[in-house]
Amino acid sequence: MELTITVEQEPGGYWSQVGELPGCFAAARTLSELHEALGEAVGLYLWDVPACLEEPALAVGESTVHVARPPDPGGDSGNDGG
After folding, report:
1. What is the rounded average pLDDT of the residues 65-78?
2. pLDDT in tens, 13-49
3. Per-residue DSSP letters for the chain?
4. Model's pTM, two decimal places?
5. Arithmetic mean of pLDDT, 44-69
6. From 3.40.50, 2.30.30, 3.30.160, 3.30.56, which CATH number describes the 2-66 domain?
7. Are residues 42 and 64 in contact, defined by beta-carbon separation less than 8 angstroms?
8. How many C-beta atoms lie closer than 10 Å to residue 15's C-beta?
């Protein structure tokens, strides 16, 4: 899934919002921390579990990132047991 991320810089850190997910945002002191926090926010918004953004870097401004549904933590990698 591709999402549009807007990153803004303020004194002391950064914040971001996801255009396609109203109310989904994150804030952090560094872009690296923001990347992690935004992955958590997107995953919790969509699937109730933290996710990882697949694009490696965020920058101030608007960009597109890819996020994949995280594996089911209680699942067994797709094996239905039958």
Report:
1. 72
2. 999 999 999 999 999 999 999 999 999 999 999 999 9
3. -EEEEEEEEETTEEEEEETTSTT-EEEESSHHHHHHHHHHHHHHHHHSS---BSS----SEEEEEEB-PPPPTTS-TT----
4. 0.82
5. 89
6. 3.30.160
7. no
8. 16
According to the model, what pLDDT value does residue 15 have? 97
For the chain, which residues make up each domain, given as ranges?
2-66
Structure tokens at 43: 């995953």
d(CA 9, CA 22): 20
Contact 34, 16 (CB under 8 A): yes
Q: Which tokens is 7 given?
A: 């990153």
